[in-house]
Design goal:
Rossmann fold; alpha+beta; nine-stranded antiparallel beta sheet
């Protein structure tokens, strides 16, 4: 026979195992003739064992038989959740939240009714109770408690074996070179010391998620020069758009004359394929939008395309600090529209690089209030000297300035000369593969944060664009001198260096919190609706009745009063009181001169499935 119990934000349908039990015994399983196998040690304080076939004809009676053995202190049934083969045992503890306005005396009466022992009081309404030898099965107790109106919810503490996840890093050849994902304090294959921990904590975020993000998330990269045949991009392309020619599904390659988009895209989402590098969100889909532009109409068009085609995140490593080309109101509106109406009203997350001009103000696009403005830090957790500064900086992320990162390069990329004098693609002249190169600037920092945003949405797709920006800022690591921060913000670093692990943890926490609130609402008592006729008379504070609960919603009082009065033909007494500024209604059935009369009513109500407890009316006055 199945039993349904609350388990956090969901319900579990549990069925008894036919041959497993949990035992607390002073004799080992090997020494017990009635045990053939021990499956788990210390699961909820019990050892989970398989009983011998000769004693499993009736698991209830045989568990009682085993409990009677001198060496057995306690025994429990083992359960399986519907659709699962994972054994579950109740630990004997029950988490209970009482209705607002209930007193400690009232709560103790409820515990006494089921022979429960108060193990811990967390606050005025939340307690942990534990079963005693005189208590029923803890699962049945929890179910019965939920039927008492004085109890808001009751959840049995359950234990089950957990999977041990050994998260395996992607095997891509250059991942050890990607210090911005996890900085171990040195550059592989180069005699260069960097600062351990000066990274974006992306690998830690993957471990927390247990994966490398969701393929449901779409990152749009607006830029020029995408090599859609690059091995890290070719299988990820989703609804590309050429803003210059207004064509869909065709992006110019070598004939575009540009290369910048390819490394930017790979920093955000390079695929796991056993070769080269890995992006921050390697499972995300890639929406390439070719054609950056100053045109107002084209700006509106590209952001509208992102909204209409499902871009969750929009990464832009371009802009201007030339005052002659500042944003007009229509461009500002186009960005605001995407940030507020994208993702079906949750808002597309829009990121802009602050720029590489070593100025005390940021790229005008990055200054938009709905944008996440990304600055650059170095492999030594210092401000990258080229990175623009300003009050609009939201966050910084690891890039070059000390040692560059590695990114993908377009097949037609002819390279450039690094400051060290080494020509082409590598700062130190040592090749790490023909399809990659050293890269940096705020151009690299921006898509790195875009990839981290994709991990956050993988953890919690219900986050709004504003949620994502706030979480990134609140979970960032403060780097640099404390004196550089005012009210938590630095013009160099924003709110600090991005921390993907902490950001994902907060995204997950908010998801669990929202689900818990939703569950409480769904299982709550429906507010009263309908037409009621009643009369009111003053009740003297004397006599006895059966209290069935305490309510914060007067509509619930009307529903309960109408039902109880018609079923039990007894007067309904309501006590009205204030608790922490909130009105609470305690409902009592009956107003009898003697406790014996009230007990008779209580028995009648119990037989009808309505649980309550005896109440002296003078205690309510």
């Amino acid at each position: 026979m199945a039993i349904t119990v609350r388990n956090g934000k969901q319900s579990l349908i549990l069925k008894k195992s036919s041959n497993l039990v949990g035992l607390r015994s002073n004799k080992s399983a090997e020494e017990s003739s009635y045990v053939t196998k021990e499956l788990h040690k210390n699961l909820g304080g019990f050892n989970i064992v398989q009983l011998a076939k000769s004693v499993v004809e009736n698991i209830d009676s045989k568990l009682d038989e085993v409990r009677a053995f001198e060496e057995v202190d306690t025994g429990t049934h083992v359960y399986y959740a519907e659709g699962s083969n994972r054994p579950i045992v109740p630990t004997g503890d029950i988490f209970i939240q009482f209705q607002a306005g209930s007193s400690a005396d009232e709560q103790n009466l409820v515990l006494q009714e089921f022979a429960l022992k108060l193990a811990e009081r967390k606050d005025d309404l939340n307690v942990i109770a534990t079963v005693t030898p005189d208590s029923p099965n803890p699962l049945k107790v929890a179910n019965a408690l939920e039927k008492i109106s004085l109890v808001k919810w009751a959840e049995p503490d359950l234990d089950a074996p957990m999977d041990e996840y050994n998260f395996e890093l992607p095997k891509d050849e250059l991942i050890e070179h990607q210090w911005h994902l996890k900085n171990e304090g040195f550059v592989v294959d180069a005699n260069w010391k960097i600062k351990k921990g000066a990274d974006a904590k992306v690998i830690d975020a993957w471990k927390r998620l247990g994966n490398t993000g969701s393929s449901d998330i779409v990152i749009a990269i607006i830029d020029n020069g995408f090599d859609l045949n690059h091995p890290d991009l070719k299988d990820k392309v989703y609804r590309p758009f050429d803003n210059w020619s207004n064509t869909v599904n065709r992006i110019p390659g070598a004939d575009s004359g540009h290369t910048h988009g390819t490394p930017c895209a790979t920093v955000a989402l390079a695929a796991i394929n056993g070769k080269g590098i890995v992006g921050a969100a390697p499972n995300a889909r890639f929406m390439p939008i070719h054609g950056t532009t100053f045109s107002t109409r084209a700006t509106e068009k590209m952001f509208d395309y992102c909204i209409e085609n499902g871009a969750d995140i929009i990464s832009c490593s371009w802009g201007t600090t030339d005052s002659a080309f500042a944003l007009n109101g229509m461009k500002e509106a186009a960005i605001a529209k995407a940030a507020r109406t994208g993702r079906k009203g949750k808002g597309s997350i829009i990121l802009f690089a602050v720029g590489n001009d070593d100025l005390d103000y940021v790229n005008f696009y990055a200054a938009h209030p709905d944008v996440i403005a990304v600055a650059a830090s170095t492999s030594k957790d210092e401000h990258a000297s080229y990175s623009n500064r300003g009050v609009e900086v939201s966050i910084c992320a690891p890039s070059n300035g000390d040692w560059p990162i590695i990114a993908g390069r377009a097949s037609w990329d002819e390279g450039l000369e690094w400051e060290t004098g080494n020509f082409k693609f590598w700062r130190d002249g040592r090749s790490r593969g023909n399809e990659y190169k050293h890269f940096g600037g705020t151009s690299s920092a921006c898509p790195l944060v875009a990839g981290i945003c994709a991990l956050m949405l993988s953890a919690n797709p219900d986050l709004t664009a504003r949620d994502v920006k706030k979480i990134l800022q609140d979970t960032a690591d403060k780097i640099g001198a404390p004196s550089e921060y005012t009210n938590g913000h630095s013009k160099k670093y924003g709110y600090g260096r991005v921390n993907a692990d902490r950001a994902v943890a907060e995204a997950l926490r908010r998801k669990d919190e929202a689900a818990s609130k939703s569950f409480d609402i769904n299982v709550g008592i429906r507010s009263g609706q309908g037409l009621f006729r009643f009369n009111v008379a003053k009740q003297a504070p004397q006599g006895w009745g059966v209290q069935i609960g305490a309510f914060a919603d007067y509509g619930n009082v009307l529903i309960q009063a109408e039902s109880l009065q018609s079923r039990f033909n007894a007067p309904i007494v309501v006590n009205i009181s204030e608790v922490n500024g909130k009105t609470i209604y305690k409902v009592v059935v009956g107003a009898y001169n003697t406790i014996e009369e009230a007990k008779t009513l209580e028995q009648k109500m119990t037989q009808a499935g309505v649980r309550g407890f005896l109440r002296n009316l003078k205690d309510l006055f």
